[in-house]
Amino acid sequence: MGEDEGLHQTQLLDTMFVRGLKRKCIDGEEDIEGTLAGFKAIPSYNLQRQSLLDMSLVKLQLCHMLVEPNLYRSVLIANTVRQIQEEMTQDGTWQMINAQNSGPSSLDRLVSTDILCRSSKEQAEEKFIQGYNGFSKDFEDTQTQEGEEILRPPLQAPRNLPTNMWEMESPPENRGNFHKSLDQIFETLETKTPDSVEDLFSEVDSSYYNLDTVLTGMMGSTKMGHCDVLETFPQAAANPNSNCKSDLNELDHFVEILVES
Amino acid sequence: MKCFSRYLPYLFRPPSTILSSSCHTEADIISTVEFNHTGELLATGDKGGRVVIFQREQESKNQPHRRGEYNVYSTFQSHEPEFDYLKSLEIEEKINKIRWLPQQNAAYFLLSTNDKTVKLWKVSERDKRPEGYNLKDEDGRLRDPSTITTLRVPVLRPMDLMVEATPRRVFANAHTYHINSISVNSDYETYMSADDLRINLWNFEITNQSFNIVDIKPANMEELTEVITAAEFHPHHCNTFVYSSSKGTIRLCDMRASALCDRHSKFFEEPEDPSNRSFFSEIISSISDVKFSHSGRFIMTRDYLTVKVWDLNMENRPIETYQVHDYLRSKLCSLYENDCIFDKFECVWNGSDSVIMTGSYNNFFRMFDRNTKRDVTLEASRENSKPRAILKPRKVCVGGKRRKDEISVDSLDFSKKILHTAWHPSENIIAVAATNNLYIFQDKVN
């Protein structure tokens, strides 16, 4: 039973990889690698790394929404992002994405890549990569900024994109749903001002759960794109709710707190 | 008692029924387990802020097979959910750690902590009550002086045994971050509490101030790359303590050197194996627990995939490394996705420091005999925990053909994790917390 499932997943993984390889940005990465560094020239590696980066940024943004995130977890995630960024800078992928970002062909770029590149490029915005560099600000004492922080640039970025990563990676049945709810959140977060926090969260309230379930759904499917082909994870895939239970609870709490206040 | 290594670790059996709450809610999840110094008592803390204390029954000649079973002795609400109005933040009541104080009189004392506040509890028995006061009646109401015609001598009358838990001290408002460890000093007058970025030293008698002995908070929080994950005092030297970090390092500090121990005396770190490098290297090297051996000679650390034993006299590498569940190495990406990679597994020594125990997924826990180098995987489950049945070793099959009785890596249940275990200080009795169930296993008698 378990083995059958595993086999099925492996096949799926294979197809996901084939699909992933068709992506335009991979070609670009290969070019850069060919001319610049040449090491780690496996496209699937870049794909995996990119997906890991995206996943980490989503995790950080969720951390970011909490008043008092788990520091242990968020520091480790932030370090992972730094590490990926460092490596991408070294092998030139980072610059490549930056260059691509300024051009008109941004169709294949991922949400979080855009967040990173935008803020790193646009010096006017001092908030460099809010997704992870700014997260720590909230920890100590800046309660009043809390609301603002959430509303700032990184979350607005996706609005400018005609396509995003979720469409690339998710199976069709997940796509629309997730896109919608994600958009909804970004929209909500961006249009509200800090003094209407209640409004903000009364609206987000329902979509939180959407985001959460869709995120887990998304993760269940994106992992096929970037995890090792040999990897199968029926338990996690079969029961996403239990895995994200704590997150959900934290978010739940957070919403409650804000609504109460 | 017979030499344990002959048995190890195949002959554990549950001495009694599994101790658990009948209806399982989030609040029932056990979050810490700790034996007291004699092993007579066992305390658990849960997510609902409750502390349950079990007491070992006296041996009875009529029922020799019921040797030393643990029964509920006292239950009390240690922490309540609170609300921080300044931060607009709910403070969970979940008990993060419990530490017993050495017993000095008939009463027992323990420290319990949630994310922010440490409390000192006194647990004491009462089996007599005073009767026959002159100014008060039996219900405690004042008597009308005009009705008092004679004086009498109050007497103590026996009554049903009552166990009372009373909060004696509350050590609050000293931690900005989440407390992950508390440790009682061997001077028995002080203890420390560690959060993500700071460690404070307290005197048991003083609740309104503590000394900050370690502070790794950078001036600019954006430069933060490391957090404190666990801390413990040396069992005999009251000036020495260790703390572990999310970067996989352990620092040993000497409080005689300076009041603020930001500079360590020893720094234990193993060089990274370049062949195993991945994006998850740092996360899996992060230390989730650190424990001194009873002798004080060794420290044991748990990271995501291994347990390591360090000699206090050798800082550059551990003297022993044990693989807990190496088959998960190929699954790190998925474990990162579902956040399991951030699970904080604890580890414990047996009474003679010859065996170590730590938890894993699928309700499995592992034991390693340091002398024979044998290891075993056991499972805490209702099905195989019939009284007096012997726990059978379990095996996880990695790739290839799965043999009968083996479980494939892909069918492990990652929601069933054993994070907290405890080992009786002198006997081979272990307590294993599996979600809302507490399993107590003991070495087979003869």
From TrEMBL, chain A:
Listed GO MF terms: transcription coactivator activity
UniProt domain SERTA: residue ranges: 45-92
UniProt cross-references to InterPro entries, sorted A to Z: E2F-SERTA_domain_protein, SERTA_dom
Pfam families on file: SERTA
Record's signal peptide: none
This protein's GO CC annotations: cytoplasm; nucleus
Name recorded for this polypeptide: SERTA domain-containing protein
Species, as recorded: Anolis carolinensis (Green anole)
Taxonomic lineage from the root: Eukaryota, Metazoa, Chordata, Craniata, Vertebrata
From TrEMBL, chain B:
SUPFAM superfamilies xref list: WD40 repeat-like
InterPro entries from the UniProt entry: PP2A_PR55 (IPR000009), PP2A_PR55_CS (IPR018067), WD40/YVTN_repeat-like_dom_sf (IPR015943), WD40_repeat_dom_sf (IPR036322), WD40_rpt (IPR001680)
Pfam families, per database record: WD40 (PF00400)
Keywords: Repeat, WD repeat
UniProt GO MF annotations: protein phosphatase regulator activity
Keyword Repeat: yes
Top-level lineage group: Eukaryota
Gene Ontology cellular component annotations, sorted alphabetically: cytosol; protein phosphatase type 2A complex
Family as reported in the entry's similarity comment: Belongs to the phosphatase 2A regulatory subunit B family.
Protein's UniProt name: Serine/threonine-protein phosphatase 2A 55 kDa regulatory subunit B
The species this protein was found in: Anolis carolinensis (Green anole)
Recorded name of the encoding gene: PPP2R2B
